[in-house]
Amino acid sequence: MTASFEIRKVIGSVILTLVWIMCFLFIKPTLYVDWLDNGSITTPLLLLVTVIGVLILVFYHIFYRSTAETTKLSLTAALTVIWLSLIIFYPFKDPTNDAGGAVGFFALIGGLAICVLWVRFFADEIIA
Predict the structure, then answer these.
(1) Looking at residue 91, what DSSP letter applies?
(2) What element of type H or E holds 34?
(3) What share of the chain is helix, strand, coil (3-state, %, to 5)?
(4) Residue 105: φ, ψ to 5°
(5) 42 with 32: CB under 8 angstroms?
(6) Sign of the dihedral defined by the CA atoms of residues 71, 76, 77, 83, in that order
(7) CA 59 – CA 73 distance, rounded (Å)
(8) CA–CA dist 66, 10 (Å, integer)
(9) Alpha-carbon distance 105 to 111, whole Å?
(10) pLDDT one-digit tens code per residue, 68-117
(11) Neighbour-count burial of 41, counting CB atoms closer than 10 A to its CB (0-12 exposed, 13-18 middle, 19+ buried)
(12) Considering the entire predicted model, what is its pTM?
């Protein structure tokens, strides 16, 4: 049995994921959104953009109609891009960062999970 993939959804998902990752790289963590003029209610801009980006990615996968296999492939490609960006851009050996070891451990476990997901798509037969 062969699966019919819609490559447009996968490419769109990867592009949206790359834009979401660029928000982490180019928005300074010191920027805040001041909801009132007196500064009593503020939200970090990076957190706000991160949440909005995740919602856009989730809604993209929900509302872009395609087969279940295409959606699984699109999510796997997006998770792979996120994992690669974590491995490339996260400062694991920063002396001021105490969480480097824990993040490294979970990055390794996440890499194992991504390998398992890709094995499903590279297998000879996909059983529905």
Answers:
(1) -
(2) strand 32-34
(3) 65, 5, 30
(4) -60, -50
(5) yes
(6) positive
(7) 16
(8) 11
(9) 10
(10) 889 999 999 999 999 999 999 988 887 787 778 888 899 999 999 999 99
(11) exposed
(12) 0.83
